[in-house]
Amino acid sequence: MAHRRRYHSDSVRRSGWDYRQSAWYFITICTDRRLPYFGEVRNGIMGLSPTGCVALRYWENIAELNERAVLDAFIVMPNHIHGLLGLVPKPNVNDSQEVGSLESNDPTSKTNGSTTSESTNRETSAHMSRISPDAGSVSAIVRSYKTAVTKRVRGTLRTDFGWQSRFHDHIVRTRQAFDNIRQYIQSNPARWLQDQFHPSKAES
User: Fold this and answer.
1) Which residues contact 164 (CB under 8 A, 6 or more apart)?
2) Residue 197, in any domain of the structure
3) Is residue 149 one of the residues assigned to a domain?
4) How far apart are CA 23 and CA 163, in angstroms?
5) Pairing of strands 80-87, 45-48
6) Kindly report the CA angle at 136 between 98 and 124, in degrees rounded to 5?
7) Could you list the residue range(s) of the whole structural domain that residue 180 is in?
8) CA distance readout (Å), 162 to 33, 36, 189, 192
């Protein structure tokens, strides 16, 4: 399955789109020079390195640290990660709405697992709003994730670790697209040799 992705830096966005808007976003983040920091694929199964485990754990923490964030399919590959990241309009919403507007967690069929208190979430959101003009946006969430992983990995595992400065995002507009992307993410290890991010492929 081929997906058209838009490639953004933290300061260049899709024209006319508010990245704090409620929607599902298909996120791809590559390592610096696409080096395989996160492990390797053997027989269609991804084996995580210690650095890969950090990338996985910190992604899972996103929903605990961002009251509007919900997560679905996610995979750590040798030199990149793929994830479905959703932004909801408020922490507690009705499960019966459509995926297109992301008025609910319905496409995930699960809660975000957050154990953070509502008051703590409010305090964190207020603090982030003061220090960052795009607090709560996709860009801010991805930037915080990359920073946290980098700090943890460089502090204890690999001082040479780094990400590419930019990331791929795709706004998911329909339930069919959501299901297709979910399948794409889940089947990524099985198709690793054909993946556009495989070391054998030229830089796009």
Assistant:
1) 29, 30, 31, 32, 34
2) no
3) yes
4) 25
5) unpaired
6) 120
7) 6-11+18-192
8) 9, 11, 22, 22
Distance of CA 49 to the CA centre of its chain: 19
Contact 6, 169 (CB under 8 A): yes
Concatenate the DSSP letters of all residues of 123-155 into one string: HHHHHHHHH-TTTTSHHHHHHHHHHHHHHHHHH
**Is the overall model pTM greater than 0.70, yes or no?**
yes
Is 199 within the bounds of a domain?
A: no
> Phi/psi at 188 (nearest 5 deg)?
-55, -45
Q: What is the pLDDT of residues 89-141, one digit of tens each?
A: 864 544 434 344 444 333 333 333 333 344 444 454 444 444 444 778 999 99
Tens-place pLDDT, residues 28-82 = 999 999 999 999 999 999 999 999 999 999 999 999 999 999 999 999 999 999 9
Structure tokens at 54: 């950090």
CATH code: domain of residue 162: 3.30.70.1290
